[in-house]
Amino acid sequence: MALKKSELYSSLWQSCDELRGGMDASQYKDYVLVLLFIKYVSDKYAGIPYAPITIPNGASFKDMVALKGKPDIGDQINKKIIAPLANANKLSDMPDFNDPNKLGSGDEMVKKLTNLIAIFENKALDFSKNRAEGDDILGDAYEYLMRHFATQSGKSKGQFYTPAEVSRVIAQIIGIHEAKTTSATTVYDPACGSGSLLLKVGDEAGTAVTLYGQEKDAATSGLARMNMILHNNPTALIVQGNTLSAPQFKEGDTLKTFDYVIANPPFSDKRWSNGIDPLNDPYNRFQPFGTPPGKQGDYAYLLHIVRSLKSQGKGACILPHGVLFRGHAEADIRRNLVRKGYIQGIIGLPANLFFGTGIPACIVVVDKQEAHTRKGIFMIDASEGFMKDGPKNRLRSQDIHKIVDVFNKRQEVQKYARMVSVEEIEKNEFNLNLPRYIDSQMPEDLQDIEGHLKGGIPVADVEALQRYWEVCPNLQQVLFKANRPGYLDLTVDKSTIKPTIYEHPEFATFITDMNRHFAAWRKKSAKRLKALQAGCHPKEIIFGLSEDLLAHYRGKPLMNHYDVYQHLMDYWSDTMQDDCYLIAAEGWKAETSRIIETKKGKDGKPGKQVDKGWACDLIPKPLIVARYFPKEQKAIDQLTVELENTIAQITELEEEHGGEDGAFSEARTDAEEGKEGKVTKATVTKRLKEIEEDKEAEDEASVLSKWLEYNNQQADLKKQLKDAEASLDAKAYAQYPKLTEDEIKTLAVDDKWLATLEKDIHGEMDRISQALTQRVKELAERYENPIPQQVCTVVELEEKVNGHLEKMGFAWK
Question: Comparing 115-124, 173-182, 342-351, 569-578, which segment has the lowest mean pLDDT?
């Protein structure tokens, strides 16, 4: 069975649980990621001559397995595995596997390390057989773990991980993909953390480029080196040290310059000047623009980036929003950067994206190539495009795509993006705060005073729905009629607004056209997807598929093509991605597997194994049933309905004849404290025998006999249902070996993938009609009762109340 991404992730996260009790996430991540690294490079390179990674004899994962259970396992791992592997590959800052403070001592350490190694022994984690190599399943797993570790590590470690979504934005806006890159093209990150941002930019290049990174934290720089290897960049040069006080990449006495420089430095670093004299910087980073303030290091990193770029270089830096408007020394630096023409663009991001801080950040895009001709700065306010992801916010696929599209095409989008001239910026005293230039606030829903006084829906509110009337030009006349100049009345009852819209011929035509539009894309995509073969690259698949879908819906009325795109990306993440990795590894195979659940035994040890049935990842059972056994399923559905009806009849009978004097009062089990006794077959049968000769209890006997009849009917239906389900289960199970490759393709592509997408995208039609319905209803309710009418109603009601009070002998004044 091929390795599914989701299974890999859950297995690795399980390994974290083995260590969780002894240390926080920032510590145990080192052990888990090192084991992942050793397992991967051992599977991939052990015994292979001239491999980019050397695996010394006796230092592979298999050799580590041999140490399980040994009393000195931690010491042996350090000496026999870690040290030789690190020395052979120039790796440093590896974690100590014999640290009793973190791993416990004696048996505790032995058990913990033995269990941790055992998790990586899972046969499914055989990375030598990963045929989807170009998709870097291990690199993605590493990234997944880093995200989770950053989430749990608290404030101090969030700075070492840049969310992958933000990394993708930067990688796609600095222009590296369009450039003619070679191995001589250089990419540098002066605060590289675990290397995720650097890798994303390198990957976007499309060809092998040379990666450089510096990281102050020793342990994190070690993780970055391993990350480079896991991402198939073993030649990347990662060094440890403080970039600002001791930059490691130099050419003589000056800083080395690069084609691309990107960074996510620590926000507002208060200790940035430790070890240097900012006024006499030997690398001339600050003097041309101004010296950053001692307690705010943001511009120190940005100026380091500017100085590290070649004359034609491009870069991007993630910084807190404060850099756009803070005054004093930073205002001088900002003015000089703008006048120099180095700032190409600014992208405002949502708040709470980054680990360790909730403040909003921005991406400052630097471009030296066109600095001398730059007449403006392109600004994007993307602060409203995100989804909630636990305690943090997260950019969705559609948010990333929209930012990249708008920035790269320099599209001016109302309330989102515009090109701001240097002259306008100068008038604002070089304050670059985005709200000064982009009003991203939604327009206020204004109340019409005349409408509230005299009634009637303002024509202006109806005309604001113009995008709907463009698609359905006659629908407006069906919904509204003239009241007086400037005001309209609703012509239909509020309860019929939705059916009026949905059933209108023009809206029906719109839905038909959209369904036909999807069908055209579905037909084309089905052919492409059914042509997939073992060894295909899932990331290439989803890129081509999603870009095609996005283009297919671009410009369609009422439909937001980015919303449609998001449906596909969500389904890809949830289901389709794993399916494509299965196909990439094994081809079109629909293999079933038993679901074995191990129950907990005594003392927490594994207990009895229970067979919980079977499953098939690529072709789930419901697809087989729907296509090959619809009659059997229909019979089961009918039995289910009959059973539910019978249960309802029993419940109704018990409720109707319950209570102290009811027919079931003497036909219950003994009552527990605070609870009423239960009605059972035994108690009912017993009670019927007791009143068998009692003519006065004929009504009670009739009710109890009826209950017994229903109960027997329920038992019979349950048995029929159980037998029918077991029979269908056996038939479905037996169908899998009979499936041809073409049938598997039809089930996966037509019945599963595209059917789900069609349902999701069709839901957009419901959303569109619901949005229009809600707005029309809202306007109708807002103005249906004018204030004078409400006053009259109040007066009438007050008179009625006073009248009732007088009748009861009260005088109300």
Answer: 115-124
- Tally of CB atoms within 10 A around 519: 12
β-sheet bridge partners, residue 263: 317
Number of H helices, E strands in the chain: 31, 18
Residue 413 bridge partners (DSSP) = 417
Token code pair at residue 235: 């030649």
CA distance 352 to 436: 22
Tokens of 320: 């807190």
Contacts of 226 (CB under 8 A, 6+ apart): 33, 34, 37, 91, 142
Confirm if 169 and 400 have CB atoms less than 8 A apart.
Answer: yes
Alpha carbon distance 105, 117 (integer Å): 17
Angle at which helices 621-628 and 698-735 pack, to 10 degrees?
Answer: 100
DSSP character string of 675-727 = SPPPP-HHHHHHHHHHTTT-GGGHHHHHHHHHHHHHHHHHHHHHHHHHHHHHH
Highest mean pLDDT among 21-35, 469-483, 600-614: 469-483
Write down the pLDDT at residue 133: 45
Q: What is the pLDDT of residue 612?
A: 83
What's the pLDDT score for residue 136? 56
Residue 774: pLDDT above 80?
yes
The model's confidence at residue 285, banded by pLDDT at 50, 70 and 90, is: very high
Dist CA 659 CA 491 (whole Å): 52
What is the reported pTM? Answer: 0.86
Residue 3 has what pLDDT? 57
Distance of CA 519 to the CA centre of its chain: 27
The closest of 674, 655, 651, 677 to 666, measured between CA atoms, is 677
Query: What is the overall mean pLDDT for the chain?
Result: 89
Helix (H, G, I), strand (E, B) or coil at 416: coil
Residue 760: count other Cβ atoms within 10 Å of its Cβ: 15
Question: Mean pLDDT throughout 565-584?
Answer: 93
Q: What is the dihedral of CA 189, 193, 197, 201, to 10 degrees?
A: 40
